[in-house]
Each structure stands twice: as structure tokens, then as C-alpha cells.
Amino acid sequence: MRTEVRPATRARIVGALAGAALVATLAGCATPEDDGALPGQETSQGNEVTQDLCTRLAAESVTRAAVVTGAGERVVVIGDSWASGFGLDDPGLSWPRYLDGEVRVSGFGGTGYSHHLMERCGPISFPERVPDAVAQGADLVVLEGGINDSKSDLDDVEKGFRATLDELKGYEVVVLSAPKVNSRAKAIRAVNKMMRRVSAEYGVTYINVFDLELPMLEDNTHLTVAGHMQFGEIVARRIAESRSETVPAHG
């Protein structure tokens, strides 16, 4: 596994900082949404999206975007708090570092395919982030989401998922299923079923990771350092295995 770490380019950092300022500016007042806590919140607080929360998650996103690992083909990961390394002392240790290639990460806690999840933080859903995420080019794009989408209306999630794949036409895409979070397992299964169906329709590779049992932090939602390493290494292996087979071209 290639894990060489080097800083992102100046343009990437400036762009990420500008994005952080944007979400801080656009962050709205608190409003309760679906069940389940957002990253960094207790369940009792509900899905309360505040300016402080948006600013914190934006800062974590910028920190992770500044870390580029490996060398070789250009790999872009678009994901949520698992990708951004929520809860880690060093977000650069989040699971994408274990992928092969030159890996860049667009991760933002609380987000997913649905536009409605964190809309008070600005245009940060997966389909809205695609253009910036692939601005430096990509030979492979890995999508890691669905946990947060399990709290949204499934039709909205499918709309956002299709929009993401539409934005990525012309790129090789790997879709990871949402991993297992026991408190939301039933809803996550429904999201995964949809993503598998739509991935087949678009001709992109879908990789199941719902079967994994991984070391979690006390919130039972986010990975420990060891969990990130296990997840990253398994994902890297499953991607390599999937690419050794014939996969329909993305249309």
C-alpha cells in the first residue's frame, strides 16, 4: 500500500479554505430534523445544524483535503465524516490513505447524496461537490456515503445519487455501499438496495461493505484509528478485485 503523504497544491488549499468560509457564511439557524445525531453531537441534541457545527465540519474537511497520500493513478474519494476522519487526532489517518494511487479526499461530516442533509451549511452534498473534487483530474472516483442518507427520504437520496453519477459521466466510478451502523441498519439496507440497483443501471462498480464489523469509537458510528486502517485496506483490496473483472462502461 502506498501511504506517502505530501501537502496538497496551493490552489487546492486556497479553494478548500474558500469553501470553508462559504459554508460558515451560509450556515443557518438550528432546526431539528430526522432522528440521529450529527457528527460531534449527542443524540439528545438531535440533528441541530448550527453555524458552529458547520464551521467545525468545514475545518475538518479542509484539514483532510490538505493531505494527499500515495503516488500513481489519481484517485478521488468523495465521502462523509468517515472520509474526513471525524474523531481522529490526525484526520490524515482516515481510511482513504490506504488506497493505492495518489489519493485526494473530499469529505464533509453529516453529508451524503441528498441535498437536504446539511443544506444549511451550503452547497456541500455529494453531487454539488463533484466539480471541485475532480478539478485536478481523476482516474478513479470512489463514492463513500449512505449512512447519513439513511435519515432522509429515499426518493431524495436516489435523486441525489443519480445526480452524482450524472456529474461523473466519463470517469471510472466505484460506489461503496453504506457500512453497517447498528442503530440505523434497517434504513441503511434500503439505501444500499437503491444504490446497488442504480449503480447497475449506470454501469458503475458497486462494492458491498455492509458486511464488515469494524472497531468503532464510543458513539458506535465512527471508526477508531484501527477501524480506519481495516476499512481502508479491505476497500483497497475489494476495489482491486473488482477492477480485475470486466465492468460495463459508464454511460
UniProtKB/TrEMBL annotation:
Residues 77-228 form the SGNH hydrolase-type esterase domain. The keyword Signal applies. Keywords: Hydrolase, Signal. One of its GO terms (molecular function) is hydrolase activity. InterPro entries: SGNH_hydro, SGNH_hydro_sf. It comes from the Bacteria. Pfam families: Lipase_GDSL_2. Residues 1-26 form the signal peptide. This is SGNH/GDSL hydrolase family protein. It comes from Nocardioides turkmenicus.
